[in-house]
Amino acid sequence: MTDTAAAEAPAESVPPEAAAAPAPEAELETEVNKSAREKVLDHLTDSEGPQTVAEIIQGTGLSRNTAEQAIHRAAQAGQIERVGVGLYKLAPPKPPPPPRPEPPAPAIGGRTYEDWMTLMEAWYANPATWDVATLGPAPGQSGCLVPMQASMMFARRLERREKQEAEDFKLQAARPATHRVPWQLSPHRRAR
Asked: Which secondary-structure segment (H or E) carries 46?
């Protein structure tokens, strides 16, 4: 048959179900696609007692070089243990590490940063709330006991707040008066 005849020949009809069906998925884990280390670990799991390198090779079907590399890597990873010359067994499972305790909040002068920020926010809103007997002189006064770090953090917080308020004011002033709600209108523009 010539190329022209092959091109003119009708194509074999394929049922639409077969054309649309995806290829069957390969099994997730078979003996063929397991890594050498997985084969060694499976062999040691299925066998009883320590195994020699020759027994591991015979049980896994790996070449000697591949088996020795897999054994070496599994031993380095702590998955198997060497119990003698050429004898290996599965390592006992490692217990999970204990949960780490949460680190304590850094304390300055016996209080956390948040404690100092709360105290200074209250003082900033109403200076009469500062308890001189327990906290010492108020911030900004001589002999103030507020740690320098906390004072600097509070000053930065105030700077950011004032900057944001100034930006908000500029945006508010830039809006046309018609978009403002009645309580935002100046008294002389307020509807009567």
From this structure: helix 36-46
Quick check: helix, strand or coil at residue 12?
Answer: coil
Helix axes 64-76, 53-60, angle to 10 degrees: 110
- Sheet containing strand 80-84, strands side by side: 51-52, 87-90, 80-84
> How many other CB atoms are there within 10 angstroms of residue 44's CB atom?
25
pTM for the complete prediction?
0.38
Q: Do 71 and 40 contact (CB within 8 A), yes or no?
A: yes
Count CB neighbours of 83 within 10 A: 12
33: tokens are 């696609």
Tokens of 129: 């709330």
Among the listed residues 62, 93, 63, 66, the one whose alpha carbon sits nearest the alpha carbon of residue 79? 93
DSSP 127: G
Task: Express each pLDDT in 112-167 by its tens digit.
Answer: 888 888 999 999 899 888 888 888 888 888 888 888 888 888 899 999 999 999 99
Question: What does the alpha-carbon distance between residue 172 and residue 164 come to, in Å, rounded to a whole number?
Answer: 12
Residue 142's SS3 state is coil
Q: Cα–Cα distance between 108 and 103 in angstroms, integer?
A: 15
For residue 179, the SS3 value is helix
Query: Average pLDDT in the 90-96 region?
Result: 86
Please state, in angstroms and rounded to a whole number, the distance separating the CA atoms of residues 79 and 163.
Answer: 58
